[in-house]
Amino acid sequence: MTASPHSWRIRAVQFGAVAIVAAPWEFAPRAGLADPTLLPPFSEVLKQLIVLLSEGSVVKDLAITASEVALAFAIVAPLGVGCGLLLAENDYIGRVFKPFFYFLASVPKSVFLPAFILLFGIGFGQKVAFGVFQAIFVLVISTVAAVASVEPELVKLARAYGASRARIYAEIYWPSMLPFIVEGMRLGVIFSITGVVFAEMAVARAGMGARIATWGQTFQMPDLYAGVLLVSLLSITVNEALRAYERKVGKWRG
Amino acid sequence: MARLTAGKLDAADDERGAAGVGQAGPAPVDVAVEHISHIYGAGAVKALDDVNFTVERGRFVGLVGPSGCGKSSLLLMLAGLMQPSEGRIVVEGTELSRPDPERVGVVFQEASLLPWKTARENVEFPLKVRGIGKAERRTRADAFLDLVGLSEFKDRLPNQLSGGMRHRVSIARGFCQDPHILLMDEPFAALDEQTRMTMGNELLNIWEKRRKTVIFVTHSLTEAVYLCDEVVVMSHRPGRILERIEIDLPRPRTYEMMATEKFGRLRDHIWRLIRKD
């Protein structure tokens, strides 16, 4: 993004909007307008955030959640893209199975959590499985869309130039699909995080989701808000990094 | 692959020569369309019916006809991308059964650039497919981008170019392949009338410099008469040849010719043929 005077003005207004939320958060509890045990001042939350990051046990929980998400994503990315390619490229399989994916995509995944607990227990494996389950549909659907985005006209053109099948995949399919795949991956990571944290919040012995749930149940409000802030900041960072990559590989679009 | 070297680029033409052009005696036949008939699906639609004609070396031949007359199918067959139900296509004496880009190059409808490649990479692409080295590809692509006046825009992506510029890139890509025969499938159909005429003139300019045998499919009768040496008029489905019309206007063609009685008569004649059908 270029820093034109215009975008500076937008940044200033956005900063103002944050201040409008943060200022009452800071001063209402101090002025007795809000119960400080339920809404501790913003600065207390920030202070607690730094305390949490210096606590080995919280960092360890964060690492557990991160590795659950990473493993879930490492499983779901090739699986989702692979299923998507199969559904898109094989006419018969596509016609038989595509509807199931579209139907299941619309069902809230959270209703399956009790079944996952019974099937996979409450440990690391169950968190990963639920993370995979949350993310697979969006990945499959965006891969199918990626294949559909390949222009038949360009395939014909490459054939007329005498391109082999391998070259057509490398030079036409791959670059056409890449921005869609990266977009699917980005959504996949977000959905994996959602699944893992949600599963941790329900039943778990470790992980950030478990931490946040416990803090809430025990009225440790500065910790709770700091935990929410921490998970939010990390998710936003992952999302924005992938979005930047998506813009880079999709510069030719639009 | 001697004829593909960069050194040959500035030669008037390759060793085949622009034989027949401005010479006495008949030119050799580059393309022979021999009794082509085509049926789509399981005998459902007859698209082409015994189409038979030849194109001599160095000629600029137009293919016109109403929509659905099968002219685009015929072009796909000439490109080796489609097999006719009956008949065959003979290029320089040998039958064509699959794409042969060294002999037959194609300029597609609506520019058809690869949107993730720059103008230069697009022009280089067919050469890359053919396995020509990077340095030579670059030299040749640059020369043709220069020829179409796009030297300053070669590193731009298609979405950063105007419609006219994209078509120039497409034409540069067609000529850069240095095929003996260049097929053009309504290359300017998506352009406005004014840009279309400009592009037509630019195409003729390049063609005067690098004579190729051109087969040009178009909807526009004015464009057909203006560009071509000969216009092959096709009928409504199933496509048959109604008439082959020699356009004996002098070259180089100029805008003024369009106002002449002869130009009008030729265009009118084609119009009547298509309308009657």
What's the short version?
The complex is a heterodimer of chains A (254) and B (277). Chain A is mostly helical.
**Percentage of residues in helical conformation of chain A:** over 70%
Mean pLDDT of chain A: 92
| First-to-last CA distance of chain A | 16 Å
What would the average pLDDT of chain B be, to the nearest integer?
Answer: 85
In the CATH scheme, the class of chain A would be: Mainly Alpha
Parts with pLDDT < 50 across at least 5 consecutive residues of chain A = none
Helical fraction of chain B equals 25-40%
Residue stretches of chain B low in confidence (pLDDT < 50, at least 5 long) are 1-15, 18-22
Shape by Cα distribution of chain B: globular
Could you name the CATH topology of the domain at 27-102 and 219-277 in chain B? Rossmann fold
Oligomeric state of shown chains: heterodimer
Q: Looking across the biggest beta sheet of chain B, what order are the strands in?
A: 6-7-8-3-9-10
Order of helices and strands of chain A: HHHHHHHHHH
CATH topology of chain A: MetI-like fold
